[in-house]
Design brief:
79% helix, 0% strand, 337 residues, mainly alpha
Length: 337
């Protein structure tokens, strides 16, 4: 692993540590149920900064310049893994009684989606960009950037649709008059009018006009987008300080193994065996899949108030473990080359 990547990993841990210190010293408040700094920060990221980043990314996409073979070879196995993890966990919770506490039931039915994102959504920016640049040069970085441009768009949109569908069904079970049409209407409304999906759709609509983003708007969106990475890292530290790891380590380790070992293995098998990808594109997509869990997993968990502590622990565990798993995947790719 290059020195540049090591420095980036170190910077991530330092930023998380600063958030943890701020939480332990209660600089942002006591973390009471009515005043939770971690949730406030997560809401700011989810409703302000992430939508700005998604809208600007989709509005500026140039389809003619995209390496579509690499994109398809990467996202097909990743979405398959996402659906597999979600499906298994959804099957495990579907038989649980709804009970009288709707909020607790909603947290339970949202957990398959929040765990699925932790098992598939990688830290493609803070860790991925320096990794791709250091290992693969300008050509490899170009492929990696193309994958980043669709990363959140595809994975967050799919998971949003799944979790909103589950939540709509959960709410319907608590309402005697709820029917199929009402459930479908609630699912569609909550999926489209959503801080992830709506800016993506708006960005795609703007992209279809071929209009450039006005200078002031573009600068504003770019400025808001730059806040996503440091804010999310501080949020991880805050969540650790206020919530701790508790008994979440076992679950976090299992998800980390899926993210760091199973996912890149699946991408390698499908991209090489199914789509015939080879050489530099194959190396880039496999290492993209091998990245540790990204901070969007925690934002997603905070949004649905489900498995926040486990998501936080998974990010920390997978990022630390990546120091050891990344060289292994580089050795595998080197042997194949």
């Amino acid at each position: 692993m290059s020195l540049l990547v090591f420095h980036k990993l170190l910077a991530i841990f330092v930023t998380v540590a600063l958030g943890w210190i701020a939480g332990r010293l209660r600089w942002l408040g006591e973390g009471t149920p009515g005043s939770d700094p971690a949730r406030t920060l997560a809401n700011a990221a989810f409703y302000i900064f992430v939508p700005a980043l998604l809208f600007r990314t989709t509005a500026r996409l140039d389809p003619s310049q995209m390496p579509w073979a690499s994109i398809v070879a990467f996202f097909v196995p990743v979405v398959l893994m996402l659906l597999a993890v979600y499906g298994v966990l959804r099957w495990r919770v579907r038989g649980q009684p709804a009970g009288d506490d709707l909020a607790a039931h909603e947290r339970a039915v949202a957990s398959p989606s929040t765990r699925a994102i932790a098992a598939t959504f990688g830290n493609s920016l803070q860790v991925g960009v320096p990794l791709a640049a250091g290992l693969f040069g300008e050509k490899g970085l170009a492929i990696h950037i193309a994958l980043i441009s669709l990363h959140a768009l595809i994975l967050l949109s799919v998971l949003t649709a799944l979790v909103e569908m589950d939540l709509a069904r959960a709410r319907a079970r608590h309402e005697a008059t709820a029917g199929l049409l009402k459930t479908l209407r609630a699912t569609v409304r909550n999926t489209l009018i959503h801080p992830v999906v709506l800016p993506v759709l708006a960005g795609l609509a703007w992209n279809a006009t071929d209009w450039p983003l006005p200078g002031p708007l573009d600068e504003t969106l770019a400025l808001l987008g730059t806040a996503v990475a440091p804010m999310c890292l501080v949020l991880i530290g805050l969540s650790l300080a206020y919530g701790g790891i508790g008994n979440r380590f076992k679950g976090a380790m299992a998800i980390s193994l899926l993210k760091l070992i199973a996912l890149p293995a699946l991408v390698l098998a499908v991209a090489k065996g199914g789509f015939g990808l080879a050489g530099l594109p194959l190396q880039v997509v496999v290492m993209m899949a091998a990245l540790p869990t990204g901070s969007n997993a925690l934002i997603f968990a905070q949004r649905y108030r489900s498995q926040e502590a486990e998501a936080t622990t998974t990010i920390v565990v997978s990022t630390f473990s990546f120091v050891f798993t990344a060289p292994l995947w580089l050795m595998v790719l080197g042997a194949l080359a």
